[in-house]
Amino acid sequence: MTTWDDATPGLLRLPSGRLVRGRGLHRSNSRHGPPREAPDHGVYLLGRTPPPMAWETRWLRCRDFWTPDPDETRAALTEALQRSGESRVEVACGGGRGRTGLALACLAVLDGVPAGEAVAFVRAGYHPGAVETPWQKGFVRRFGA
Questions:
Q1: Which fold has domain 12-143?
Q2: Could you give the CA distance from residue 14 to residue 26 in angstroms, rounded to a whole number?
Q3: What is the chain's mean pLDDT, rounded?
Q4: Buried/exposed 16-48: b ≥16 CB within 10 Å, e otherwise
Q5: Rounded Cα distance, 79 and 64, in Å
Q6: Which residues contact 111 (CB under 8 A, 6 or more apart)?
Q7: Is 1 helix (H, G, I), strand (E, B) or coil?
Q8: Across 50-68, average pLDDT
Q9: How far apart are the C-alpha atoms of 13 and 126, rounded to whole Å?
Q10: What is the pLDDT of residue 27?
Q11: DSSP SS3 for 24
């Protein structure tokens, strides 16, 4: 069993105690800089196929400032939440805020945070600018329905 070190930048502690790392793939845009530890599993929200990684990945097609397919998102994040109990899971987009925040907020909903509180939860625990657009916020609210 491998889990994140508590000092790992970009961690969000979910209500269950599980840790998930959020980050930006473009180092110059990332608040947390390059990763020190590799994940075991990653969910990537990008407008095009991400480069090959040395770990298991799920790709959700999602252009910058937009939202991914709800059904694919639920499947990918349900798997990520299950894996986060015993392995290092990360979610990422280009800059590490909008789409990453959306995915982290949806993970929080799956872990028991009410949908109407999930964006604030992620902003308090991960990044104050997480979930950037009104339609991303709406996606999180609908995700909990």
A1: Protein-Tyrosine Phosphatase; Chain A (3.90.190)
A2: 25
A3: 92
A4: eebbbbbbbbeeeebbbeebeeebbbbbbbbee
A5: 23
A6: 14, 15, 16, 18, 81
A7: coil
A8: 92
A9: 9
A10: 59
A11: strand
**Residues 6 or more apart in contact with residue 92 via CB below 8 angstroms:** 22, 23, 24, 25, 42, 43, 44, 45, 100
Average pLDDT over residues 101-106: 98
**How many whole angstroms separate alpha carbon 14 and alpha carbon 31?**
20
Angle of CA points 22, 90, 111, to nearest 5°: 85
Q: pLDDT value at position 30?
A: 46
β-bridge partners, 43: 58, 91
Please give the Cα distance from 70 to 100 (Å, whole number): 15
Question: Could you give the count of Cα atoms lying within 13 Å of 130 in the half-sphere of its Cβ?
Answer: 29
Q: How many CB atoms lie within 10 A of CB 140?
A: 25
Residue 31's pLDDT band (cuts 50, 70, 90): low
> Domain map of the chain by residue range?
12-143
DSSP state at residue 63? -
One-letter identity of residue 50: P
Q: b/e for 62-91, b at 16 or more Cβ within 10 A?
A: beeebbbeeeebeebbeebbebbeebbbbb
